[in-house]
Design a protein that fits this description.
Length: 347
């Protein structure tokens, strides 16, 4: 039987509280348990992220249930203002995500440097284990608050991307993006040795005042990339989109194992690229509304269908013709994460 997916039009967005009650968004949230509201606080300069006032509505409902909500995200692997917890929290604060505005604290789930994680065994096609940000694993239940937009690797970013890629630790994110060891530009190395202590695999050594690298020991975690001020290490973003989409789904599988969740997609400020970009980004269509449901696959599928209807043709194919975004739906269905069939309930 198709699961219910609820739709609130954007011109009634101030009815979010009652909409979420009708959609039974908090049925899975229990008293005195930790509720992780996983979202994206927006890169510096980006304007597409979901704004703090909406999170307050969610935390108000969670508190009515005497739950302990917190907002969370994890570190990025690209160099920006969200690549460690310290700068990430400062940026979130700058974007208005204060305790007063949101009604709860923020916890960056993978710790100060993005390497605080739990390996969850899944034994799937690409990954035997997935490295998930630790405090995601310690939460009792989830709400995934997702801004829908285009994405240069997966065609679009919604619930599945926020769950799979977004909850991965730095090592997890590297594993999704990358399949090999870093390349080294030895000429740039000044032999300072700063990278060595960050290598968890003991793969780096100084030899003749230059760094040397043992490919057999390297686990591709990418710690060295961030630790070297001379940009000696480079990781190629060489996974093809099919593998990345499927790995994201395997990470979703790991995150959602034995946990209940609810997904809320905001279909507004829809741009070609994701909220990790530092630019404002051209908005490609009018704001549509909010789609919500317990099944993240159905929520994403309903969002794509709704966006395509408003755009007049396949939006993701239009912006990224070379990407087959349906791969993620197919694999998510195969792994039993959810269903692309849904019953749309207009609020
Ligand atoms: S941190 Fe960079 S410059 Fe220093 S030893 Fe390592 S690779 Fe060389
Ligand atoms: S990618 Fe990780 S394991 Fe490999 S050399 Fe760099 S720090 Fe060490």
């Amino acid at each position: 039987m198709a699961g219910k997916v609820y739709f609130l039009p954007w011109n009634r967005k101030n009815e979010l509280y009652q909409f979420l009650k009708t959609a039974r968004a908090f049925d899975h949230v229990k008293a005195r348990q930790f509720l992780a509201i996983k979202m994206h606080f927006g890169e510096d300069g980006n304007e597409g992220y979901i704004k703090p006032e909406y999170t307050k509505t969610l935390t108000d409902i969670a508190k009515e249930k005497t739950a302990f909500p917190f907002l969370t995200d994890a570190s990025t692997i690209y160099v920006g203002k969200r690549s460690d917890a310290y700068h990430h929290l400062l940026l979130a604060n700058k974007h208005g995500f204060t305790i007063d505005n949101c009604g709860c604290p923020i916890i960056i789930a993978d710790g100060l440097r993005g390497n605080t994680a739990v390996d969850i065994e899944i034994n799937k096609k690409h990954c035997k284990t997935v490295s998930i940000s630790r405090d995601i694993c310690y939460a009792d239940s989830f709400i995934f608050l997702n801004h829908f937009k285009g994405h240069e690797i997966t065609g679009f970013g919604g619930a599945l991307k926020n769950i799979g890629m977004g909850c991965g630790s730095k090592a997890g994110k590297y594993a999704m993006h990358h399949n090999a060891n870093p390349d080294l530009d030895i000429e740039k190395c000044i032999g300072c040795g700063a990278c060595i202590k960050w290598c968890p695999a003991n793969a780096l050594k100084i030899n003749d005042k230059k760094i040397t690298f043992d490919k057999k020991k390297c686990i591709g975690c990418g710690e060295c990339v961030l630790s070297c001020a001379k940009n000696v290490f480079k990781l190629g973003w060489n996974e093809n989109t099919k593998n990345i989409q499927e790995k994201i789904i395997e990470f979703c599988y790991g995150v959602l194992q034995n946990k209940k969740s609810f997904s809320i997609n905001f279909l507004n400020h829809i741009t070609k690229f994701c909220d990790c970009y530092t630019t404002k980004g051209k908005v490609l269509m009018d704001d549509i509304g909010i789609i919500a449901g317990a099944d993240p696959v159905a929520v994403d599928k309903a969002s794509v269908d709704m966006v395509n209807k408003h755009f007049g043709k396949d939006f993701c194919k239009h912006i990224f013709p070379e990407i087959d975004y349906n791969i993620q739906f197919k694999y998510a269905t195969e792994l039993g994460i959810g269903s692309i069939d849904y019953e749309l309930v207009n609020y």
